[in-house]
Amino acid sequence: MTEYVVLSAILFTIGCVGVLTRRNAIVVFMCVELMLNACNLAFVAFARQHGNLDGQITAFFVMVVAAAEVVIGLAIIMTIFRTRRSASVDDASLLKY
Amino acid sequence: MNLLSHSVLLAAEGPANAPVVSPDTGAGGVFDLLWLVIGLPLLGAVLLLGVAPFLPASLKAAVDKHGHLVGTAAAVLSFVLSLVLFVSLLGRDAEERQVGQHLWTWFETGQLSVGMDLLYDQLSALFLLLITGVGSLIHVYAIGYMEHDARRRRFFGYLNLFVAAMLTLILSANFVGLFLGWEGVGLASYLLIGFWQHKPSAAAAAKKAFVINRVGDIGLTLAIALMFATFGTTDFGGVSELASQADQGTLNALGLLLLLGACGKSAQVPLQSWLLDAMEGPTPVSALIHAATMVTAGVYLVVRSNFIYELTPLAQTTVVIVATVTLLWGAVIGCAKDDIKKALAGSTMSQIGYMMLAAGLGPVGYPFAIFHLLTHGFFKANMFLGAGSVMHGMNDDVDMRRYGALRKAMPVTFLTFAMGYLAIIGFPLFSGFWSKDRIIETALADNLVIGLLAMLGAGVTGFYMTRLMLMTFFGEKRWAEDVHPHESPRVMTVPLIVLAALSVLGGVLLLGDWIVTWLEPVTGHVEHHEPPLPALVITLMITAVVAIGVAAAWFLVGKREVPREAPQDVSFATRAARADLYGDAINDGVVVRPGAGLVSGLLTLDRGGIDGAVMGGAAAVRGVSSTLRRVQNGFVRSYALSLLGGALLVVLALLAVNLG
Q: Taking the model in full, what pTM does it have?
């Protein structure tokens, strides 16, 4: 059990550090996914330990949300890349221009 | 000499209650036209001021050209009506000489009901004759005096407005109506002092008169409010009936507040300083408003409120003190002024002091206060108009140091002025002799010190009037080069002659103590008392003191060369008198500067304290916001960091709560 939680924490931390340090929007995006899946892992692990389905159902919800997010997020990144010729999140700091 | 043997002094015995005012409202006959006395000049004012500016141009030009005739006609008709009313009043029995007229109910709120009521009794009858009579003469005079003024129509409109307001003051049967007239004359006075408003000094003088009068008006307003609170009415009838039931403190307050009002209007110390500046107005205004009528309204107020003053010895004593100070104050100022109108203004202040003094002495004094008021109305109007005539001939120069030897150039003005002069110094058998003499006698019987001070004032009067006379009409010519004095036109000299005749003959009112008997139903009956000295001795003493004053003027002014420029190396007393005895400096130091200090203190408190707190709070919020603004830098990763930080904080808080 502990192993799962530790793995989940490690994955979450990696994702978190990735979001904070990387500039490429795609990589940031992937790190976000990593954090979401770390959470899913924790949910599933705790669901199994408690012997009910609550955590598993929540994991499905998270996956649905993540899928929707990917659709919108990638579209936005595509648009930014088309206008700025760059996928760096720092370059998009002035959204009004 | 018949009059002298009748000079028996009257003195109040014990707390005598003043007669109750109870006018007969159903007199009918000519008395139903009482309102018309006010109505005529009011109509004149409305026509000249309210209607004329809206007329078509051609008609307006005609009104501008002939408007003065409308104004004069209104005043003269009002005088004729007053005369008819007076004769009718003479025809009634002494007990029935209080006639009232209810015009309409002015306002009614709660328990307060104030009617437009008129009261025509022995006192108002005399005032009516004085105001409309002298007023008419001054209207006639002003036709000549203001002939070349482009705004003559407006001037006559203001004069009519003044007469209407003054008559309202005199005829009203309650204090609220009196206050209406009181404010009306204040307004007219303001408008007329500042008539030549293109002169900054005239505009400032008008404002000064208005503001100082407001101080007095506060006293009158509070007195009226106190009357309503105490008696539930402001009618003379109601107040005179209930006054004896009020407690002493209320009566004292009423007396002192009314005195404050009287001080403002009648230029008594400490509210005296406006009168000298008021001489900026055209001379007919000085004669009508600031000598004969308006400034005596304070005396009228005190005499009319006798039912209050009879019950408050404290207020009566205060009146006497104020009056004595003023009569000397004005006389001293009159001694040093080189401006002929200001010298006369100082004299007016002093003479009103005499009237107030008599009014403060109670029922013994009231008739003499009114008597002196009437004779002063004649001779002072005469002299002011005479001074106006002199100025008219001297290109509007008012400096007596540039007059001299005018008696040959202006014989009529000189002779009429001389009549007024003899009357005011109290030359035997002239009107002022009888009236001032009686006041000093009464004062002597009441209090030796006050009496002697009043006698001293008479001597000073002799000095400054002789000085004025000598500097203006005698001595060497000291005229400016382009001045060619000439006698004034007939329209100006005829009123002078009439007023001079009245100045000489005004004493007839005292024949057989007529005025005392006439006013007795208003002022109350008092027992006759023998004076401390025989009346003849007192009269001789007064005449001797006046003679000393006249002789002093002759030796100091008449026998010497009068310098064309006022000498500067003069005594402190002269400098003080030239500066109006520092009246303005006192006002400045006691009221204006502390007031300005208070205001600037409040301003600092408002700006520094209250505004500081509000603005400081706003500035703090603004500072914090502009610092926080930097957090919104547009970098997604820094947002993510703060998100993480927030989440960590929440987790830590949860842990702290759960584990703690």
A: 0.79
In a domain, B6, yes or no: no
- ipTM of this complex prediction, to 2 decimal places: 0.84
What pLDDT, on the 0 to 100 scale, is given for residue B528?
A: 60
**B619 plus B491 within the same structural domain:** no
> Could you tell me the residue range of the domain that residue B625 belongs to?
579-629
CB-CB under 8 Å, B637 with A93: no
Question: Which residues lie below 8 Å from residue B85, measured CB to CB, with a gap of 6+?
Answer: B30, B31, B33, B34, B37, B120, B125, B128
- Model confidence over A48-78: pLDDT tens digits? 999 999 999 999 999 999 999 999 999 988 9
Task: Look at residue B1 and give its three-state secondary structure.
Answer: coil
Q: Does domain A2-86 have CATH number 3.50.30.10?
A: no
* CB pair distance less than 8 Å for A93 and B635: yes
Distance CA B654, CA B526 (A): 101
DSSP string covering B299-343, please?
HHHHHHTHHHHTT-HHHHHHHHHHHHHHHHHHHHHHHH--BHHHH
**Cα dihedral sign for B141, B145, B150, B154?**
negative
Q: Where are the domains of chain A?
A: 2-86
Residue B115's DSSP bridge partners are B105
B644: which chain A residues are within 8 Å (Cβ-Cβ)?
16, 20
Q: By CA distance, what is A97's nearest residue in B?
A: B634
In a domain, B11, yes or no: no
